[in-house]
Amino acid sequence: MNGRKAKAIRRQAKLDMVDWLKSLLTEEEQSNVTVDNVLQLAPKQTHVRAFGQFKHSVYSFKWFVKQVKLGKDWKDAIG
Predict the structure, then answer these.
(1) Bridge partners of 47?
(2) For position 56, what pLDDT does the model report?
(3) Residue 27 to residues 2, 15, 18, Cα–Cα distance (Å)
(4) Which helix (H) or strand (E) segment is 25 a member of?
(5) Longest Cα separation, the chain
(6) What is the pLDDT of residue 43?
(7) Helix H or strand E segment including 47
(8) pLDDT at res. 72
(9) Computed from CA positions of residues 39, 43, 44, 48, in that sequence, does the dihedral angle turn out positive or negative?
(10) Rounded CA gap, 70 and 64, in Å?
(11) Do the Cβ atoms of 60 and 43 come closer than 8 Å?
(12) By Cβ atoms counted within 10 A, which residue in 22, 23, 25, 44 is the most buried?
């Protein structure tokens, strides 16, 4: 993967994170969430240990990047 594609994936992951975070908040708090500050508002824990394995923590930045790479929509993980 070249740098342009990686940058586009990270950009899309940030946009998906903004959408996800805004879906959890009230109308007043939604205006505070932007692409610039979404990483400060998101969970800091990136990995979880389960059954002797380390996996990406759900709804972390790395998880969103992985979902974009796989071509999946983050909304499918909810239901």
Answers:
(1) 56
(2) 84
(3) 38, 18, 14
(4) none
(5) 41
(6) 79
(7) strand 47-50
(8) 87
(9) negative
(10) 10
(11) yes
(12) 22
Instruction: Indicate left, alpha or beta for 71 from its phi (over 0: left) and psi (-120 to 50: alpha).
Output: left
Asked if 56 and 69 touch (Cβ cutoff 8 Å), the reply is no
| Paired tokens of 33 | 């969430």
Q: 27 burial class (0-12, 13-18, 19+ CB within 10 angstroms)? A: exposed
d(CA 60, CA 38): 11
Amino acid identity, position 36? D
* Structural contact between residues 44 and 24, judged by C-beta atoms closer than 8 angstroms: no
